[in-house]
From TrEMBL:
Origin: domain of life: Bacteria
Native organism: Candidatus Copromonas faecavium
Active site: 19 (o-(5'-phospho-dna)-serine intermediate)
Family matches, as CDD domains: Ser_Recombinase (cd00338)
Pfam families (alphabetical): Recombinase, Resolvase, Zn_ribbon_recom
Record GO biological process: DNA integration
Protein name in UniProt: Recombinase family protein
Keyword DNA-binding attached: yes
Domain Recombinase: 169-290
SMART domains with a match to the protein in the record: Resolvase
Keyword tags: DNA integration, DNA recombination, DNA-binding
Amino acid sequence: MAKETTRSLRIGAAYVRVSTDGQMDLSPESQLDSILTYAKTNNIVIPKENIFMESEGRSGKRAENRPQFQKMIATAKTKPKPFDCILVWKFSRFARNQDESTFYKGMLRKKLGIDVVSISEPVLDGMYGRLIEMIIEWQDEFYSYNLAQDVTRGMKSKAVAGGYQCRPPLGYRIPYHKATPEIVPEEAEVVRMIFDKYVNSKMSIYALTKYLNSLGLKTSQGKQFEKRSVEYILQNPAYAGIVRWNRTCNATNQIRDRSEWIITDGHHPAIISKELFEKASERYAAEYRPKNAKPVEVTKHWLSGLLKCSSCGRTLSSCIRHRKNVATHHTFQCYGYLKGKCQANHYVTEKDIVPAVIRALEDAVESGTIDYEVRRPAPSESTKELETITNLLQKLKQKERRAKDAYMDGIDTLEEYKHNKVLIAEERSSLEASLEQLRSSRNDEETYSRDSRMMKNIRSVIDIINSDDFTMYQKNVALRSIVNKIVFNRETMHIDVYYYLIESQETRIK
């Protein structure tokens, strides 16, 4: 008898999954207990390495979204055969998509000789059993589809009513389940600073990212800022008190047509004004470059965006000309004229406009008497930055106390404590350097005269423009740091260069 019992033992695997849709599932532990009890009763041995349990709620619609399921299938394909059957609490735990269920069960049973058994839904052997199993799977998929529709309708209704139903971004927290998001003051200051520097100080997203990390600031997940995390903040209307829902498709994350979006005023408090958010959106849309597009350095001239039409005020668009036996060169024309919205032709080549601009810059340095307006952060903004850095330095003291307490309580080892102290010291050094730099910039005007600094900046820009070591984009950024716009009048062949000015300086094109 003992030999017969040994021969009847089978090696099994257990697959455990709970749903993401709030169903009345058994907990993962309860499912596993039931499976192990069934296995013991039916002479099935399940080794620890054959237990595949999803770590969190996972939808059963798509197999690729379930890492433990994929691991189980990969294990099943190994030689020799690792187990004889897979036990699940219900067939719906294996899959809720009948097409996928049929595919994987067919592969396991026909190619690998591994059966899939539902411990709570016993079925007969043979064709009738398979038919009953398919009916159960169809019912599970139908239930899942109906439930998804109900959930979607509920979420849509909540979005239309202005309800917020996403994970709170940086600057907000949800105090309890289903509560309206509330502002986290210290994080909100960081968000305001990001929008202000992007819109008013014209800081690039790349420069913003470096600046935030230099201050030791973190994202809502406690990680360093990346370009995409700054872009996410700048594109998130929640900061302006707006709810946007159904923008992307959950399955592919592709952006839906705007007609499918739901946009409404939310019940949560705004961190920034709608006007500031719109300005940020306008700049982002204007500078957005799709993947695989040519870099700005290749497609734009260093005068791009600065030349303006004297008739309508619109920007002169740049165009690259390619001709046989002639060197590639740029030309400029009024955007309004190209669209039929301006009657004045303002066509000009870089051969004519570039020398005039450089000559205007050189004349400004020689005269030393130009009118201009110094652009610098408003006192209120720099004060907020000082407060932000000061608060972060205060928090470092709390971190030091917690690190010391963790060591004294035996939670951290001496090595871990030393490592934490080094990290805190590095963060303090970075913050103190930023604080000193900010204070220095605020006192800069008392140290140097405005005129001498302005002349120095213009000379630096001239050197950059005349150098071959800088890209078109870098030259454009340099020129924008001192010039607001250059108005071109083709009829008189004049340019008016505005150095953030009260009055313009005129230069004739000869």
